[in-house]
Design goal:
The chain is an alpha/beta fold and about 280 residues long. The chain has 2 domains: about 210 residues, Rossmann fold; about 45 residues, Alpha-Beta Plaits (2-Layer Sandwich). The chain is about 35% helix and about 30% strand. The protein has 11 helices and 11 strands. The strands form 2 sheets. A 9-stranded mixed beta sheet has the order 3-6-7-2-8-1-9-10-11, sandwiched between helices. A two-stranded antiparallel ribbon has the order 4-5. α1 crosses α11. It is elongated. It starts with a strand and ends with a helix. The mean pLDDT is about 95. The protein binds iron/sulfur cluster (2 copies). One iron/sulfur cluster binds next to β3 and α4.
Amino acid sequence: MIVGIASGKGGTGKTTVATNLALSLNGKVQLLDCDVEEPNAHLFLKPKFHGSESVGIPIPQVDEKLCTFCGKCGEICQYGAILAVKKKVLVFPELCHGCGGCSLVCPEAAISEVMREIGTVEKGVVRGVDFVHGRLHVGEPMAPPLIRAVKEKTNNQGTVIIDAPPGTSCPVIESIKGSGYVILVTEPTPFGLYDLTLAVDMVKALSIPSGVIINKADIGDRGVDQFCQRENLPVLLRIPLERRIAEAYSRGEMMVDIYPEYKEKFRSVISEVKRLIGE
Ligand code: SF4
Ligand code: SF4
């Protein structure tokens, strides 16, 4: 079973939920941190890494001895990443999505492909949990190919937890695509509600069933609860605003180590998810 953990915005406790969930479950568990721009699950879990591999995308390289500067490569590129100007073909590597379209249409076979590294995938293990995350190079705009590389490490055994990036943009969709269920982590405030509505629209568009964990559940107002009721979204867990939880977080410690009773609560969340999706 693959469970995505997402939130409409950062700072709602998404990674806290993903990491504590991973440590609470029995059996085979894998955690994929797909927040490749700012991976931070490892800061809490402190896995022992045992493997790393480079991830790149193929970008065009033009042999100007073969090129007739016909411009067909630039015409097909939807991203403005290659452009024929007079007696030169310009390639803008940061804009290239590595689709290969330009080399396919080149009538002179003047385009070959070279790999441009965009980041790395690292694998590790912690307390019996298989851990994988991606690290996108600083300033690199192409997160989705690296997220796909992280997800290729899915072992399809037991429970796979995907810690998605915050927000509702392409990297989030790439991360949660293929999940059997998505847990949306939110806070009971008007801002939390606004971001939750966007996140709910996103999972609906992907036809993935979802439920909600309300963090800092004893602050704010009833707006999130009323929205969940209206939308028939199950509230799977409420985590109160506890000084000791916040202090543990700031020290990079795990909530389930401070409050072991939360292990059972997180296990119940997954049992409920299984019941809801009929697993
Ligand atoms: S399509 Fe091929 S031949 Fe035409 S400009 Fe591009 S690289 Fe040169
Ligand atoms: S590989 Fe695709 S995105 Fe990159 S330059 Fe060629 S057509 Fe454009």
